[in-house]
């Protein structure tokens, strides 16, 4: 039989490459805006009146821009998020520190966020409750444990609420707030905060007068998570910078205009850092005889905040779980999953700590002071992540210059230098009590902030790493391959 008569053996068809689903740079800008922008920080900056413009733009230039461009290069070259970036650039222990801080900051973030929810919800029920520490503590505990219950069931029912948060709880209330504030001034009412050129810069009263700017670093944090979408752009080199500049402009508008509107209506000495947004809405609606709208706006803000909490609840803890199972950084008890594959033990342990922190609201008379302290601790723990990220980015550019990257940040070393210096300065300034809280005990303030930020951000992960055992590594081989 000739070779012609032998049926040709068909080689298996090569798998078709998956089609790439591109997104426009405008769509990425809107995604970034939705994950970063919020009205929660508006009362904090409304204290400064017109100077809030300066206090928002400065951290946007020295922190938001470097963070966005540097994380875009890292995300386009290395999968696995901040753990892999820092592990490749520095070491695996430093990578664990980064992913731990990304998780640990949520321990203080939830009481801070839910403190805002409590004060907002008070305006729906009884505005006098907004200054009650007991009310705030109860709301924090009920909301958090309800979130743990929902997350432990592995449900995706909150996805719609979370994705609609930008419109429901930010854009609509923000636009209404600014429009009412503009009409308020247009009717001839005098602004509660002076709106003259001499007020463009904050009054200098020593370092304490600049401490509130630290909170803006937290407002801009999270950009490294959006950088993972850089590979979905057709031309990342040109489109990603345009996307970041557009989102930065939108974020600035959402942050600045509502803060200004609040400063027009509510005097700084009467402003609550947790209830300031609702104070402004209540005052404006009263001005126009429409106070019945206040509870409706409150429900919108609460719904958006709770949706955001649920999206954050499982994400960082799941990342910490995966790394710990592969490398054995956490004891097996914290690595256990429930029958739905959710890291329930981590969530419950985190909840116990959150409950203890929430009780601080019940025992410290000034709710605004507690809210501010938690915001500072959250920011400082998260800043450790960025300090490591900037150093790792410089080392990766030098040690792996030929590693394929979908995007290369311009002047990377300069961007990292500016971002690192700004992050370090913000971390150090956070230990200084702000001028608005000058009447309190400085030693107590520094002790609480240092204990929270350095203890949770550095000491706890060191202890886990120091006393880890080989038996703590519980990931199956296929899990390690899939995660690599």
From TrEMBL:
Coiled coil: none annotated. It is found in: Cell membrane. It is a multi-pass membrane protein. The chain crosses the membrane at residues 20-39, 46-70, 107-126, 132-151, 158-184, 204-223, 244-266, 292-315, 346-364, 370-391, 412-432, 444-465. It holds the Pfam family AA_permease_2. GO terms for cellular component: plasma membrane. Keywords: Cell membrane, Membrane, Transmembrane, Transmembrane helix, Transport. It comes from the Bacteria. The keyword Cell membrane applies. One of its GO terms (molecular function) is transmembrane transporter activity. This is Amino acid transporter. It comes from Paractinoplanes toevensis.
């Amino acid at each position: 039989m000739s070779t012609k008569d032998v049926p040709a053996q068909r080689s298996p068809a090569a798998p078709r490459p998956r089609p790439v689903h591109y997104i426009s740079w405008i769509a990425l800008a809107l995604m970034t805006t939705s994950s970063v922008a919020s009205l929660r920080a508006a009362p904090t900056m409304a204290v400064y009146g017109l100077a809030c413009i300066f206090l928002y733009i400065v951290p946007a230039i020295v922190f938001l821009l470097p963070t966005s461009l540097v994380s875009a290069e890292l995300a386009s070259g290395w999968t696995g998020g901040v753990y892999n970036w820092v592990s490749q650039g520095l070491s695996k222990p430093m990578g664990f520190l980064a992913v731990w801080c990304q998780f640990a900051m949520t321990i203080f973030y939830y009481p801070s966020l839910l403190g805002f929810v409590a004060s907002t919800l008070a305006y729906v029920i009884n505005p006098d409750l907004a200054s009650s520490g007991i009310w705030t503590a109860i709301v924090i505990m009920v909301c958090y444990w309800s979130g743990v219950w929902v997350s432990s069931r592995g449900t995706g029912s909150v996805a719609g609420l979370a994705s609609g948060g930008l419109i429901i709880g930010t854009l609509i209330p923000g636009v209404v707030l600014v429009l009412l504030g503009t009409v308020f001034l247009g009717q001839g009412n005098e602004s509660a905060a002076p709106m003259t050129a001499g007020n463009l810069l904050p009054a200098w009263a020593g370092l304490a007068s600049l401490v509130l700017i630290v909170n803006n670093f937290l407002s801009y944090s999270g950009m490294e998570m959006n950088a993972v979408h850089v590979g979905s752009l057709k031309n990342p080199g040109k489109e990603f910078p345009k996307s970041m500049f557009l989102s930065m402009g939108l974020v600035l508008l959402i942050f600045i205009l509502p803060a200004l509107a609040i400063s027009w209506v509510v005097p700084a000495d009467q402003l609550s850092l947790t209830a300031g947004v609702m104070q402004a809405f209540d005052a404006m609606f009263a001005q126009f005889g429409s106070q019945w709208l206040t509870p409706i706006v409150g429900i919108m803000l609460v719904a958006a905040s709770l949706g955001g909490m649920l999206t954050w609840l499982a994400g960082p803890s799941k990342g910490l779980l995966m790394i710990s199972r592969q490398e054995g950084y956490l004891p097996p008890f914290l690595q256990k999953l429930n029958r739905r594959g959710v890291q329930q033990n981590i969530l419950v342990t985190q909840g116990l700590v959150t409950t203890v922190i929430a009780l601080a609201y019940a025992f410290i008379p000034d709710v605004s002071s507690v809210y501010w302290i938690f915001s500072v601790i959250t920011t400082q723990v998260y800043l450790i992540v960025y300090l490591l990220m900037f150093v790792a980015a410089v080392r990766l550019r030098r040690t792996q210059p030929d590693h394929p990257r979908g995007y290369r940040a311009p002047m990377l070393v300069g961007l990292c230098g500016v971002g690192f210096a700004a992050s370090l300065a913000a971390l150090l300034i956070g230990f200084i009590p702000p001028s608005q809280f000058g009447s309190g005990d400085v030693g107590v303030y520094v002790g609480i902030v240092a204990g929270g930020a350095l203890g949770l951000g550095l000491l706890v992960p060191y202890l886990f790493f120091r006393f880890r055992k080989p038996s703590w590594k519980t990931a199956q081989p296929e899990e390690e391959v899939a995660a690599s």
